[in-house]
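Reminder to self: tokens first, then the designed residues, so the page reads top to bottom the way the pipeline ran.
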């Protein structure tokens, strides 16, 4: 069933909303801690290579599929005439639901930290473990966060999402630059930069490659159809390849700057870089304190408030995917679909909420084969959804475009709104990447590393 669909009001509207989806906790919370766990610069290099060489062509494909079909990820494959491929869309919906379920918990942390900073509680950094374990409080913040997300999504695509993205993202960007400059002036900053920028390739195990690939897909909101969905609201006169280039550069740029800012802070405070999911929450309050009480409160609150907004433009895009599915495919009223799914996802997130110290069952949830320490529930969901489902989704999308839908159809759609693309080197690269580079590399890395991580079978070591 088709229902009348919205469209982004302006060219920048789409780009900012999609960049808003991409830029979020993935850049500022997850990227630095993954770099820390992955041993530093070698991880960063792999991440950059994955983003530009593999993810960019997949992003272009997702947007093109969305704009061509004007459907949600499930309906899009059906609309192109390949009903069986709708399974890729269903997998995307599932990945999105899983991601939002834990993402919302971390968004709750960010919002909670804003409230702590407003009160000048710089001690919260050293109390992070207790903070994250206080499930009632953090759960309340998460509930509040999900409600705001639902409110924005229920107002429809252009009113809600477009307006929010427009002025908040540039402010966050400026704040990160300012903090980065400040970070350079601190003692030991150089050690942090060395860790971040000088690669030690012996650190590159399959597990690290896997994490870097998952991080690239997660950060760019790829592999689950979020950009098929956003693409479905894009008008035909827009240039997809430049829009995707802008989104990729913005997202990668902000993640890269966030690392530049954070590692000097981490090393100047003598903290371990592999501190895991608490890294920014443990590190930053102490930094804000060094700015003096007044400035510290202003900058600290602004930072966590903007981080919450960045998370919000991402949660909005995550929720939009299952909502657009229910609206398009099942004719359910938008507002009803929104509140229903938001509540459901909040509930699915409860084990993640409890897995940071509140419940020992979820905190030490499973010990994966070939590993000797247990992982918490939230981390496990990340392994499954971000690190596995997203790259597999990307793999399937590239195979679909190259061998099922066929490249000339992709090229036709890309040339709509961009006549100069025909015959250009960029088009040649996208063709080659989608047909060979993406399927082969994504396929191999996922198989090797799933065996490694989930089954303890080490093909390389
Ligand atoms: N890209 C978002 C971030 O980095 C997370 C996200 C993943 C959003 C997948 C939508 C889809 O925070």
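Designed residues (461 positions):
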């Amino acid at each position: 069933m088709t229902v009348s669909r919205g469209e982004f009001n302006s060219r920048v509207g789409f780009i900012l909303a999609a960049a808003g989806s991409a830029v979020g906790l993935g850049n500022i919370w997850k990227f630095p801690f993954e770099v820390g766990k992955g041993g530093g610069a070698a991880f960063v290099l792999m991440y950059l290579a994955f983003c530009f060489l593999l993810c960019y062509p997949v992003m272009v494909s997702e947007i093109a599929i969305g704009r061509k079909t004007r459907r949600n990820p499930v309906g899009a494959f059906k609309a192109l005439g390949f009903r069986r491929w709708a399974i890729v869309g269903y997998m995307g919906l599932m990945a999105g639901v899983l991601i939002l379920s834990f993402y919302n918990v971390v968004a709750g942390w960010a919002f909670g930290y804003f409230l702590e900073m407003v009160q000048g509680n710089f001690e919260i950094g050293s109390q992070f473990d207790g903070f994250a374990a206080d499930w009632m409080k953090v759960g309340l913040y998460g509930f509040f966060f999900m409600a705001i997300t639902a409110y924005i999504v229920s107002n429809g695509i252009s009113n809600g999402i477009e307006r929010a993205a427009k002025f908040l993202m540039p402010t966050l960007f400026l704040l990160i630059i300012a903090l980065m400059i400040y970070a350079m002036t601190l003692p030991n900053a150089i050690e942090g930069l060395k860790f971040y920028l000088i690669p030690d390739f012996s650190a590159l195990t399959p597990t690290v490659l896997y994490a870097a690939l998952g991080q690239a897909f997660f950060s760019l909101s790829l592999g689950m159809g979020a950009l098929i969905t956003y693409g479905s609201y894009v008008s035909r006169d827009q240039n997809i390849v430049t829009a995707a280039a802008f989104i990729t550069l913005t997202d990668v740029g902000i993640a890269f700057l966030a690392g530049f800012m954070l590692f000097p802070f981490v090393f100047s405070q003598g903290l371990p870089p592999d501190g895991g999911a608490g890294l920014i929450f443990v590190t930053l309050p102490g930094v804000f304190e060094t700015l003096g009480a007044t400035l510290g409160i202003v900058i600290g609150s602004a930072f966590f408030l903007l981080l919450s907004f960045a998370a919000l433009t991402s949660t909005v895009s995550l929720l939009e995917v299952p909502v657009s599915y229910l609206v398009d495919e099942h004719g359910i009223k938008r507002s009803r679909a929104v509140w229903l799914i938001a509540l459901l996802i909040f509930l699915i997130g409860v084990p993640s909420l409890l897995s940071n110290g509140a419940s020992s069952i979820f905190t030490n949830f499973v010990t994966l084969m070939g590993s000797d320490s247990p992982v918490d529930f939230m981390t496990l969901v990340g392994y499954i959804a971000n690190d596995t489902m997203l790259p597999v989704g990307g793999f399937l999308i590239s195979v679909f475009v190259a061998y099922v839908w066929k490249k000339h159809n992709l090229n036709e759609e890309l040339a709509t709104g961009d006549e100069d693309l025909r015959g250009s080197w960029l088009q040649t690269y996208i063709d080659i990447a989608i047909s060979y580079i993406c399927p082969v590399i994504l396929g191999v890395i996922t198989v090797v590393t799933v065996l490694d991580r989930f089954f303890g079978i080490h093909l390389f070591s």
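Residues 44 and 396 are 25 Å apart (CA to CA).
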